[in-house]
């Protein structure tokens, strides 16, 4: 399962993404909602 993690604090984003990866998730980290939306739309076109 792929998760988009939206977090603007770099250290917290690294900590959270590391924990999620350890649990078996694929993690995309972005710093704001606009970037998350763009990531979703871009990846949807590639499928």
Q: Please, could you describe this protein's structure?
A:
The longest helix is centred in the C-terminal third of the chain and has 14 residues, at 33-46. This protein has a two-stranded parallel ribbon. The chain has one domain (2-46). The chain is built from two helices and two strands, in the order βαβα. The mean pLDDT is 91. It is flat and about 25 Å long. The chain is 57% helix and 21% strand. Strand 1, helix 1 and strand 2 form a beta-alpha-beta unit. With 47 residues, the protein is an alpha+beta fold. The protein has helices spanning 10-22, 33-46; strands at residues 2-6, 26-30.
For the structure shown, list the relevant keywords.
alpha+beta, flat, 47 residues, two-stranded parallel ribbon
Main beta sheet strand tally, sense and closure: 2 strands, parallel
What is the terminal-to-terminal distance? 15 Å
The multimeric state of the shown protein is single chain
Helix content: 55-70%
Q: Which class of secondary structure composition applies to the elements?
A: alpha+beta
Which range does the strand content fall in? Answer: 15-25%
| Unreliable spans | none
How many strand units? 2
Alpha-carbon Rg, integer: 11 Å
- Helical run tally: 2
Q: What is the global morphology?
A: flat
- Mean of all residue-level pLDDT scores: 91
């Amino acid at each position: 399962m792929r998760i988009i993690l939206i977090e603007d604090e770099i250290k917290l984003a690294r900590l959270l993404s590391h924990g999620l990866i350890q649990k078996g998730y694929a993690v995309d980290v972005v710093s704001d909602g606009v970037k998350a939306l763009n990531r979703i739309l871009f990846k949807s076109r590639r499928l």
